[in-house]
Amino acid sequence: MTVNFFDRLRKYYQDVATVLRGEASAAAIFPNGGDIGGSREDIYLQFLRQHAPTKCNVFKGGFVFDDDGVESKQLDIIVTTDIAPRFDFHNSSGSGKAFSPVEGTLGVFSIKSTLDRKELFDALEGIASIPPMRALEGRINPLMKLRGYDDWPLKVIYASKGISLEKAWAHLHEFYAVNPSVPIARRPNFIHVAGGYLISRIVPGMAYREPSGVQQSHAGGGGTPAVGAFSATSLEPDVQAICWILNSLQDNAMASAHIQFGYGNLINRAMGFID
């Protein structure tokens, strides 16, 4: 019997997910809580470096900033395009903290050992602090329609274990009920608890489907969620998360090749030529 390639691909992603879960569990042997968290960041960092497009640079932690010098809060993993400036003088080993202009940042990741209400709120606050993207006018071929650039970078929360989907769903909506001014584009694209569930923010053209082809409803019930709303699934969440995240990074990396990035303003600001 011939094995279909896509069956092998599905099995490959399942194996990757098993490694992520297994190594995250093994990381618990470290007695220090900080060591546990750091080890899990390293595991996820390695996963991204092995699977993200070669156009991506993957850095362990730091912050992103905009042309006005506004900085985000601390972020665990940053993925940038290959033409973004690098600031690695104090990060020669690759294990130190980095920083990057938000223009040219393709993805950010918040890694949690255990996702509970406190850690979820911390991750959501970090994502909300990411400065907005500048408009693309004059920096891209007007014939090219790049949808969703204001939603860059990809924003992911990952945990090797966590509270139930029902509790995470309730806390997620509690946060935005208290903080309704957080722009949709500064809310997570994916919240992934390994072996548990995947919560996604719906963007145009996105829909979950079960193997039968039936579109899944959101966790609150009532049919198809609207663009900007969240949807949740516990159906092979690890494989779905890996596929969606890698596909999103691929889309951003490919689109970034058509954008004229310019960082001269950084020099002008650093030299004091512009206030």
What does this protein structure show overall?
There is one protein chain. Strand 5 (154-162), helix 4 (165-178) and strand 6 form a beta-alpha-beta unit. Helix 1 (5-26) runs antiparallel to helix 2 and helix 3 crosses helix 4. The protein has helices at 5-26, 33-51, 117-128, 165-178, 237-256, 264-271; strands spanning 56-65, 75-81, 98-101, 105-115, 154-162, 190-193, 197-201, 230-233. It has six helices and eight strands. The radius of gyration is 19 Å and the shape is globular. Strands 3-1-2-4-5-6-7-8 form an eight-stranded mixed sheet, with helices on both faces. The model is unreliable at 212-217 (pLDDT under 50). The longest helix has 22 residues, at 5-26. It is α/β, with parallel strands linked by helices. The N and C termini lie far apart (69 Å). 35% of the residues lie in helices and 20% in strands.
